Amino acid sequence: MRMAIPYSRTLLGPLQWYSVLIVTGILVAIWLAGCEERRLGLPRDTVIDLALIVIPCGIIGARLYYVAMTWELFRDNPVSILYIWEGGIAIYGGVIGGALGAWGYARRKKLPFLKLMDMVVPGLLLAQAIGRWGNYFNMEAYGPEITDPAFQFFPLGVLIPSAGGYVWHMATFFYESLWNAAGFAALWAMRRRVRNPLMTVNNIPMMNADIVTGVSLCLLFVVFFNGWGAFAGWMNSWQSLVVLPERLTMGFGTLLLAHICFNIPYVILSVGPKLRQMDRNLIDAAQDLGCTWMQAFWRVVIPEIRPGIVSGALTAFTMSVDDFIISYFTAGTSSSTLAMTIYGMTKKRVSPEINAISTLLFVTVLVLLAVVNLRESRADHRLKAEHHTAPAAPHPNRSKLHKTLRRVGAGLAACVLVVTLIVTGRSARSDRVVNVCSWGEYIDESLITQFEEETGIRVNYQTAESNEALYSLIKMGGADFDVIVPSDYMIARLIDEDMLAELDYSHIPNFDLIADTYKNLSYDPENRYTVPYTWGTLGIIYNTTMVSQPITSWSAMFDPQYAGQVLMINNSRDALAAALLYLGYSINTTDESQLEEAFALLKQAKDSGVYQAFVMDEVFQKMEGGNAAVAMYYAGDYLTMLENNEDLAFVIPEEGSNWFVDAMCVLKSSQHMSEAEEWINFIASTKANLANMDYIWYASPNGEALEEYPAYYEEVNEEPLDPEIYEVMAPSEEVLHRCEIYENLPTETLRLYDRLWTRLGV
Asked: Among 58, 220, 458, 656, whose CB has the most other CB atoms within 10 angstroms?
């Protein structure tokens, strides 16, 4: 059978194909409009100015059109009109809103509106042709059912899920994409020639979402490193005069280049107006008076544009300090920025250290702004008082010299780019190192210092947001980790995809200290790849002052009596697990009907306003501050919250729950296998496990540490350990008997999870 079932709605973790295609269409439209800008004789940067107006107007128009067409959905709660992140926009309203914004811009700037349309319309048609393919992945915008088997093929038709499986429908999205592409081709053929789009392309990072820029640069570096590896291997095979490094990794070099890339547009935006304001005849006059071109550049051009340079430098500095997303995808394992460090510190709560750092950053930027503004003010006063030299005749060799310098500069820039990547991207280091990725506040950091002092091995420790985020980062080659600490189901997935290295347990003698309960589990039945790190349970946290009676069932997560006071975990596997357990199903079910039933329960609760928000680490602030009554989260984190709010309680519901194991693994791509095994052996020791239990409140799989912890706690804290706290940390066998460990689900079931989570609209 000829089929056309979308592979997946998701591209990378939470990144959606629909969003990627829409953003791609917008960027292509802006680029094409930039090509037309100069050809049509419009002022420079018109397309950028227009985009800043048209895009917001288009979004507003699209939202208002949708609201007008579906007013019954907003009648009872008009404030929800503002909740655009929950979906609900219409392309026709977007076109109308964008056109009105363009008309207003044309009136304000006294530009011919029809000429602006000549610039915009070709790109708009091509953007629509690209964006319509997002409907394919979302399985929407289709026509009537096709009953004739002769016409049941793609692209004439597309398979759409229904209660009985899949049904063929007319692929109307494809038809529209086709005629939009044809319209673009016709209009583009009428134009005379393509102008230089360099400035338009340069300005794209300012319009781009940071996530798109970060992922794009990450993939670019990965492709370059893969190509370089093949080239270096070939070069080293036939010559030995110069031995090239065959393996490059992300690090400071890629981080630096990424920051240069996304900061250049802002610098040009600051320097460009100063260049346009400068009297270009000054350069000719200086050369006529005997200056070389370089002397004229340093003594005439630079002083004229210095305020723009300083402003651009300050802007670039501020953007670099502020950036997290682009840095996250390009920093690799050996580098980190201040924003990444602060983010890691805020995984659970805002500490005094973060407040101090933020204050220092604010004061620093404020002082720099004051200095720059004072300098610019004084410079403007000085320039007004100066008498400029009269313009001279153009220098005959100026144009040729400029072209030569531009070519030399471009060549030098390319060389610097490649050399920077090679020099800073080398994986081989003279010192011993291990790159570790775990979760936020999931280790007593004194252990890192202790390990480095005892072994001389440097530890690059980074954190990940979730198992899925870690998986995406590893899959696309954006990280060069050695040791990772994923959860059970993700470990099974990594094993199935042959991404983990088998461990040599003779190098990890402390593995013998791991209790048998935590060995030979379903995710690693033969104990070939993992050493357990911690274990715990998933349950319900509730504020005893905000609920009428103790909570004992998963029904609390769907109960309308707690409307607006429930925090649902922002994780598809855990959220659906709560619904499955309440309905009496296994959390590892592959039955589509059961998963659809669980989704319907979750969807109903969301639509009826039961959930205040879907959260991860935000749960700490909300529950500690009494801003929510009920939350679904992990036992160890509950104990951390309990330190700041004694009104909180924790329960593993009577229907059962998930008990999980996070384990240390080594990636197959690791370049530091011996160091990785030394790290794992150190962390698996009784001493390290006792320190970790006291710091993170998660139970240890080390049998000795688990038994000794109450005495250790009393010795360290000079008070006995509350038995109720220890029961939450390390539940009894009776409690664990009611719980299940997540298993790695079949690919089709995982895709179903993705589709259901997308439909939920979180």
From this structure: 58
